């Protein structure tokens, strides 16, 4: 387990919603418990724990890949408990994976401009459905309108933004201006509009922001939707739900596969965060239970490299 500790900086390259980096690794004898810090959950924007589960799964997959590439024989055993998803433990052989530490280091979410072009059909994806970007432009606009008009969601998002160079957590976690692909002027405008949010909300700020988001999908590209098993609300049975980190593991493998082929993803969770747009999307995909839509992201080739986010080092 000592060698596991040395690999932690690469484990911590896993993605998480709002870059909250919610994971905890607690060493006990020959095992390490994978858990999460409730102070890093998003109770307002992720009330069912969907994104938390995905982030935990992505972290587990990341740990297994990094260990395998470093020559360690490590496996994951789901064993949900209070604030715990399961354990990393020694195994007979290495975790079998196509990916390496270099792949984990190279992956990054990209929110900049994308070249037009569809994802080739032959790119193999696990549990993901593809849709043309333009088919979702109306849903994104509606979801953004709802989200940016919601005071509590905006307050929670704001607490994870790191828009000034003086922010004390700038290098640790959250979303900075570079990772958000904002110019200096845009970062300033965002800060000002968030500071003045209550007033601007009444003056129609949500409509302006939602108008901008429409353009995001108004081009010839693809959106990917991860479809998985349904879950009950986290509040009802948090421990049981956390057992299922499999979709997050698949999400991580998909992102790594795409990244290795030169593609980047830009998650657009708001489309499934809001019940009405989630229902319409499920309808368009012919999916019977809207709760099984777990993740939405546009995918493509960036016109300029993406900036990595702040990454808390253990
Ligand atoms: C489950 C999940 C949901 C996410 N949802 C969004 C989203 O709605 N919008 C967004 O811009 N990024 C989203 N992200 C991307 C994270 O912000 C990103 O992973 C994090 O900032 C770390 O950056 P990295 O992926 O480049 O390492 C999501 C990531 C995960 C794992």
From TrEMBL:
Alphabetical list of Gene3D superfamilies matching this protein: NADH Oxidase (3.40.109.10)
Protein name: Nitroreductase family protein
Organism: Nonomuraea insulae
């Amino acid at each position: 387990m000592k060698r596991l500790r040395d690999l932690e900086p690469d484990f911590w390259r896993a993605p998480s919603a709002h870059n909250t980096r919610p994971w905890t690794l607690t060493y006990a004898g020959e095992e390490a418990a994978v858990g999460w810090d409730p102070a890093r959950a998003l109770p307002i924007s992720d009330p069912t724990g969907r994104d938390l589960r995905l982030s935990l799964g992505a972290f587990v997959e990341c740990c297994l890949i990094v260990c395998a590439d470093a020559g360690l024989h490590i496996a994951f055993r789901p064993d949900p408990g209070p604030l715990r998803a399961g354990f990393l433990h020694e195994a007979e052989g290495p975790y079998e994976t196509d990916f390496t530490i270099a792949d984990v280091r190279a992956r990054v979410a990209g929110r900049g401009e994308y070249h037009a072009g569809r994802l080739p059909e032959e790119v193999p994806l696990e549990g993901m459905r593809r849709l043309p970007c333009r088919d979702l432009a109306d849903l994104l606009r509606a979801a953004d309108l709802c989200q940016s008009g919601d005071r509590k969601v905006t307050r929670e998002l704001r607490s994870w933004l790191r828009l000034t160079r003086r922010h004390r957590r700038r290098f640790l976690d959250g979303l900075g201006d570079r990772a958000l692909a904002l110019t200096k002027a845009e970062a300033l405008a965002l800060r000002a509009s968030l500071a003045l949010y209550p007033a601007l909300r009444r003056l129609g700020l949500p409509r302006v922001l939602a108008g901008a988001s429409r353009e995001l999908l108004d081009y010839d590209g693809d959106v990917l939707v991860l479809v998985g098993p349904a879950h009950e609300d986290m509040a009802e049975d948090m421990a049981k739900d956390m057992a299922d980190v499999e979709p997050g593991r698949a999400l991580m493998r998909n992102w790594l596969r795409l990244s290795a082929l030169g593609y980047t993803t830009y998650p657009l969770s708001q489309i499934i965060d809001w019940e009405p747009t989630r229902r319409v999307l499920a309808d368009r995909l012919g999916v019977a239970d809207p709760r099984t839509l777990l993740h939405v992201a546009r995918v493509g080739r960036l016109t300029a490299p993406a900036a990595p986010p702040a990454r808390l080092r253990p």
